[in-house]
Write a structure and sequence with these properties.
The protein is of the alpha/beta class. The chain folds into 3 domains: 82 residues, Arc Repressor Mutant, subunit A (Orthogonal Bundle), CATH 1.10.10; 243 residues, Rossmann fold; 76 residues. 42% of the residues lie in helices and 17% in strands. The strands form 5 sheets. It has a 5-stranded mixed beta sheet. A 5-stranded parallel beta sheet has the order 10-13-16-5-17.
Length: 432
Amino acid sequence: MISETLSAPQTAAGLGIRRSLCEDLAVKILYLEGELSLLELADRLHLSLSVVEEVYEHLRKVQLCEVRGMNGNVRRIALSLQGRARAIELLTHSQYAGAAPVSLEAYTRQVCAQSVRDVQICPEQVERALNGLVLDKTIISQLGTAIVSGRAILLCGPSGTGKTAIAECLPGIYNDAVWIPYAVEVDSRIITVYDSHIHESCVESGEGALDEMRDENHPAACGEFHSLDGDHRWILCRRPRVVVGGELTQEMLNLRLGGTSNFYSAPLQMKANNGVLIVDDFGRQRMRPEELLNRWIVPLDRRIDFLTLAGGKTFEVPFDLFLVLASNHDVGELADEAFLRRIQTKVKVGYMNDTDFREVCVRMCDQLGVAFDAAVVEEFIGLLASLGQPLRPCYPRDVMQSICWEARYQGREPVLDSESVKRACRSYFAAP
């Protein structure tokens, strides 16, 4: 049960990390923030008051802190001169002064307990997440099958056929949440994991978000939410959704050591654990496709990744994520047979037929607030044919947006008519 892992330790011995590490963090926090009550220090460390009192007692015993007053029955403390000297020394080694970390063992155990492979997915969830797209039922079935596997999927096909749109809809299939640690300790080094730019906190989203996810598949379905009694070193978040494109580099897949801060940031795949990692425009990265595939060939197979600290120590972390690769390159050009075997689902996303293309036009008109005209859409289809262009699902959006921009520039309401479509296509395709 997830609740067993997340129960709040009431003693320093139960934290799974050295007490001295918490003491060092407390000293740095007191140096940076000045006088704090023990409750405020507990809040900064994300630890229970009983643990912080234990930490305080040792700091007082070795004369690193002193009592400055009381807040009711709670002490207010500050560093002594000796404590300030100790803080300066600690900050030269690492400037991390945040939540106490969890152990690597606890992190591994928790990721396995909430594996993306164990989520129950039904066709209705997949169809609901993809409802905004016009897709063939065969493709929807392939996507659902791949998600159930929890492994990897390759979306391939010509540009403009909706691969990116499909990929970005897939995380919406997961209607549950997972526990993410603020930081993990490995060999006395701190690795930050929680990233507010990637992880969507259910606490910050409000009770409505929690209520929405209360179902039989939710890991917190039995009331196991981020309560005052829980281990605050973890934060309840929606399953992660990490999207990268052409900016992806080899360095982003390894531990990143901050320049002067001297603590680590977890690589993208570690931040994506228990969620979805989307590599868009695969094959256009600054690193060659084979470099990326060679980096992940073992993790995809064994569900374990290997990371290395600056001193050379290598350790294992779970590789528990649904990997989505989207590319308009030919599959045979991207990888050799050995790697392609590890991506068991490959979905070809091709051009549209007339019926589906018309449906996309209807939806785009509704989305942009433009009156739909079936006759003009038929002219649009004919114009594309005369230009030698296939029916790509991106064309209705791109051409109609151009019509709206022109209308806004001219200070009038946008109208879907023959002339506006011709002007938009002339600009879009550089046609005469």
